[in-house]
């Protein structure tokens, strides 16, 4: 009986993390669709925040999703935009964040329950660790949610008052 309960929890957990990955891609796409209707000049306006504006915050979300996808796939992470700079256009950022989120989702959808529970390791100059793959995935998705909130707040500072709803419950009920 305990084994059945554990299996149900595992299946619910895998389903939830896979759905949350799809939600992340959906929310990033909604944010990009909204920002594409705004003046390109606003994307480079400097606003005090974790990152100095809309474009740089989006680049950070994209870069972080690139890094964590490599970690959970156990491949060499790509060269970091944060460390080496990003010289692309706003359209490059829009395309990059959407395609990266879709790639992350596709990978997560391909994982079995067992694969989600496998331990993976990473090592950076800042921190190293070993955790179940699902923990690192959840961290990355949560990180993107945090910074999407900053994008909306930066947008408000810049006078953008029509940000789309990207709450998880909205995705579940309407998305």
UniProtKB/TrEMBL annotation:
A divalent metal cation binds at residues 60, 143, 147. Pfam families: DinB. Keywords: Metal-binding. One of its GO terms (molecular function) is metal ion binding. The keyword Membrane does not apply. The keyword Metal-binding applies. Belongs to the DinB family. This is DinB family protein. It comes from Spirosoma profusum.
């Amino acid at each position: 009986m305990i084994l059945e309960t554990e299996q149900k929890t595992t299946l619910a957990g895998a389903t939830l993390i896979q759905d949350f990955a799809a939600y992340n891609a959906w929310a990033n796409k909604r944010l990009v669709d909204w920002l594409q209707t705004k003046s390109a000049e606003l994307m480079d306006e400097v606003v005090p925040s974790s990152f100095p504006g809309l474009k740089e915050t989006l680049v950070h979300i994209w870069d972080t999703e690139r890094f964590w996808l490599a970690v959970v796939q156990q491949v060499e992470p790509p060269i970091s935009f944060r460390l080496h700079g990003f010289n692309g256009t706003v359209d490059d950022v829009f395309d990059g964040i959407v395609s990266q989120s879709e790639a992350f989702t596709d990978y997560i959808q391909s994982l079995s329950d067992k694969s989600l529970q496998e331990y993976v390791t990473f090592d950076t100059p800042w921190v190293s660790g070993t955790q179940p793959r699902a923990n690192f995935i959840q961290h990355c998705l949560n990180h993107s949610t945090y910074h999407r909130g900053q994008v909306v707040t930066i947008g408000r500072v810049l006078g953008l008052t029509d940000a789309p709803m990207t709450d998880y419950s909205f995705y579940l009920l309407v998305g």
